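YM 10:42: O-acetyl-ADP-ribose deacetylase (Regulator of RNase III) sequence, as discussed on the call
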Amino acid sequence: MVRVELVEGDITAQRVDAIVNAANSSLLGGGGVDGAIHRKGGPEILAETRALRASRYGRGLPVGQAVATTAGRLPARWVIHTVGPVFSATEDRADLLRSCYASSLRVADELGAATVAFPLISAGIYRWPVEDAVRQALSVLRPFEPVRLTTAYLVLFGTETAAVARSVADSPA
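YM 10:58: structure's back
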């Protein structure tokens, strides 16, 4: 199994093989994690995401899927872009959220990454409740059986989010 570590901090500063981007379907940058990764990673990331849009993902990357590009100027080799679902109180979209983590793990492992850093997907502008977002992430990360991947970091932005995540991680399933 992959080792899962919770880290409070900035995902763009993580020194890992792959950083996961909570992207929007356009793959062309945006706000939150996506905007920060594009800004700090530089134009190389945007050039590769534009090429992906021009070839395989003309309509954008579907929710729950993942695709890799260079990491540009980030302290990583790759950025794995995945599109999380928008939270809905009336429709269960948890399977799509778990698919983001599973797809990203598979891509990281296929790339040969030993370490990967994840943001808390969908917990920002997509309004997924933090406690459940952490539960969904850990339900996929903890049991993953990698070929090459050894460590997955769940990078939590802010003291409050990190405290909630630690509480969820320490509680019995």
